[in-house]
């Protein structure tokens, strides 16, 4: 029966209801597929991380699995181009706060509007869940990401000293208020 269920749905989400149906999206003349991620996507998630972080894995397989199967309300989306995962984003809902846990776009696809699109999808999800703010942390040295977030309405809140264990780097805490 489980095998039959998996065959019917394509991916097994361990009995979690899929919140975000797969869809095609055109961004700057290119067609992408965006869909909710499940445990079977782990290898592709880790590959995206390796490409984004020069071979490093800030999030382990077990960290991703913990997020994907958490009982806390959450959504992880992947974006594919020509059947290859090129990026992903994750958010966790805690009360009125939608916290972006992770976003990564492989270097060849950065600057093409994909990050903005994914952030917009997460903002819609947050609003649907009656959140009044989106929050995230970003490396203090990642000026390009900070510029993108500010363009999309995020503002700086505070600096979290030595937030990132690798390199003992500080993080900038950012927020976007949604009650406008």
From TrEMBL:
Record-level Gene Ontology MF annotations: protein-N-terminal-alanine acetyltransferase activity
Protein name: Ribosomal protein S18-alanine N-acetyltransferase
Family classification: Belongs to the acetyltransferase family. RimI subfamily.
CDD domains from the UniProt entry: NAT_SF (cd04301)
NCBIfam families in the record: rimI
UniProt-listed Enzyme Commission number(s): 2.3.1.266
GO CC, alphabetical: ribosome
Residue span, N-acetyltransferase domain: 32-179
Gene3D superfamilies: 3.40.630.30
Assigned keywords, A-Z: Acyltransferase, Cytoplasm, Ribonucleoprotein, Ribosomal protein, Transferase
């Amino acid at each position: 029966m489980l095998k039959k269920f998996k065959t019917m749905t394509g991916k097994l989400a361990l009995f979690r209801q899929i919140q975000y149906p797969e869809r095609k999206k055109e961004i700057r003349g290119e067609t992408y597929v965006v869909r909710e991620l499940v445990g079977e996507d782990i290898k592709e998630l880790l590959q995206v991380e390796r490409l984004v972080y020069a071979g490093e894995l800030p999030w382990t397989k077990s960290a991703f699995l913990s997020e994907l199967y958490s009982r806390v309300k959450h959504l992880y989306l992947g974006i594919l181009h020509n059947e290859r995962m090129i990026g992903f984003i994750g958010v966790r809902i805690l009360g009125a706060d939608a916290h972006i846990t992770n976003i990564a776009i492989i270097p060849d696809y950065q600057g093409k509007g994909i990050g903005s699109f994914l952030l917009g999808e997460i903002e819609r999800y947050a609003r649907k869940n009656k959140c009044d703010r989106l929050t995230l942390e970003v490396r203090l040295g990642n000026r390009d990401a900070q510029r993108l977030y500010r363009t999309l309405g995020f503002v700086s809140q505070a600096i979290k000293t030595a937030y990132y264990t690798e390199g003992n780097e500080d993080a900038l805490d950012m927020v976007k208020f949604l009650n406008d």
